[in-house]
Amino acid sequence: MFTSLPIPSSGSITRFVATNPRSFVPPLPPRLHLSLRGNHRPPGTYRSLCCGENSSSSTLQQYSYMESSKESQEYNSNLYPHIEPYSSGFLKVSDIHALYWEQSGNPNGHPVVFLHGGPGAGTSASNRRFFDPEFYRIILFDQRGAGKSTPHACLEENTTWDLVDDIEKLREHLDIPEWQVFGGSWGSTLALAYSQSHPDKVTGIILRGIFLLRKKELDWFYEGGAAAIFPDAWEPFRDFIPENERDNFIVAYNKRLNSDDIDVQISAAKIWTTWELMTAHLMQNEENIKRGEDDNFSLAFARIENHYFVNKGFLPSSSQLLDNVDKIRHIKTVIVQGRYDVCCPMMSAWDLHKAWPEAEFKVIPDAGHSANEPGIAAALVATNEKFKSLLRSASLGKIRELLSCKVALVKTQC
């Protein structure tokens, strides 16, 4: 897919060349939006219309780039320093819900939207650290009922497709033509659903800890499968429910998380949340587990997560996300998966990989589920760096092409 773009003026190109050494890799010029969409072309090739080829004098078709399979360059894998947002606010997305959003990094950089997990977990300041703040315009937002979004822990008008629509509303609100999508765990589910609904708005996709919201995945984690690895963490989760209701823990917890008694809700929420936090790392992280003691965090996390799971993610079928891979097959994508992920076991990432072999698949051999595990965090940063390098290369190639077009046009006129 190609998007029409205005050709930068000869004066702006001349000024750019005069002020930038040949060795400098330029940032994206204003209004020059580049994507990593393959458009079903061989690796290492690109397509663009130049000068008079099927174009008007005022437009040029968008550059589309795919990475060479021979690339062996290594990228930075260290988390970036903490930064603060340069803008934030609330976006009213329905009569009920208002979403908290924030932007950090470079206001003129390449836009990337971070989709948090859960659902219901909300964002945190550390999420900004996966991205180079000099290159990326980093957009974080809390999904309906989560984090700072209001009303807190609300389940009404809260479905996958509501969230997909919210992402589009936020993109339009921030006047972003298209953006890179980054999501892990439930965020990978939402990233797939959004990208398959709006592939023309997505420049590239980074997925971590794949969760396709199928029955076998839910049964693994909530009906005793993961208990074989974490029996000590499982027993409090199991024992909170009477024996006569243990045939379906998701339904049993749903009853308590929606109780008229707020104390019952909070007790159930803390136990539900702690079970997941205790299984999220290869080596248990005590600081992370303590988050389960927070009433507000646990209530949103458990109520919203359970609400989605009892409703099967509001997906038309359990294979919805795999069945629609063709809609995004052409978009440059990287999948990062911890080998020993207990929350979202590797079978789901493997199924997605088999359905989508064009996407790069990275298995981290010494990691579980959390994005904050050293190996996974390093892989996510390095993948963003790779995308950055590809986008900068595409930008440089486009500027050179535009210069050639200008020179050819001048010669023709002379």
TrEMBL record:
It comes from Ensete ventricosum. This is Proline iminopeptidase. Its EC number is 3.4.11.5. Its main location: cytoplasm. It catalyses: Release of N-terminal proline from a peptide. GO terms for biological process: proteolysis. It is found in: Cytoplasm. It comes from the Eukaryota. Pfam families: Abhydrolase_1. Belongs to the peptidase S33 family. Gene3D superfamilies: alpha/beta hydrolase (3.40.50.1820). Keywords: Aminopeptidase, Cytoplasm, Hydrolase, Protease. GO terms for molecular function: aminopeptidase activity. Residues 111-373 form the AB hydrolase-1 domain. GO terms for cellular component: cytoplasm.
